[in-house]
Write a structure and sequence with these properties.
three-stranded antiparallel beta sheet
Length: 158
């Protein structure tokens, strides 16, 4: 599934990213990014990916600004916790830091794209992603990871 963000979506994502970055930095929350991009770019890509997911999945975007570490981004229709992971790499993997715990999220969704175009590449349950055998290294240290071919196909809902 694909979505194109409009100018309002992009502006909102930019403000959200800037606010999250500033609040997290002030609170001493370390960005758990997997990649060499700046913390702000990580926040911006994440905010754009979350916005794309919210438009496709028709769920409300969390617009609160407070120090964040771990957790999830959305609650689904049945109160399932959903964590959206975004990358601009077309062949990107669904990744999660080794600090992630089963209770942080029920599902992890991989969104791929560059502003303004995004697609949902697929998803995995926490039970499927957070396994010792899924620990790998993409160059930034160990993390849980799945290839796109290992993901469940996204068909509008989880």
């Amino acid at each position: 599934m694909t979505v194109t963000l409009d100018r309002g979506d992009i502006a909102h994502a930019q403000v959200t990213a800037a606010m999250r970055h500033a609040v997290n930095q002030t609170a001493g929350v370390r960005n758990a990014k997997i990649g060499k991009q700046s913390d702000y770019i990580t926040e911006l890509e994440g905010a754009c990916g979350e916005t794309a997911f919210s438009k496709i999945h028709n769920v409300a975007l969390d617009q609160t600004i407070h120090p964040r570490s771990g957790g999830h981004d959305f609650l689904g229709r049945n109160k399932e916790k959903i964590d959206v992971k975004t990358t601009s790499c077309e062949s990107g993997h669904l990744t999660a830091t080794l600090k992630k715990k089963r209770e942080d999220a029920d599902y992890y969704v991989l969104v791929i794209g560059k502003c303004p175009n995004y697609r949902i590449a697929g998803y995995a349950s926490a039970d499927d992603l957070l396994k010792k055998e899924n620990i790998g290294n993409l160059g930034s240290g160990p993390s849980y990871l799945l290839t796109q071919s290992q993901l469940q196909k996204y068909k509008g809902s989880i």
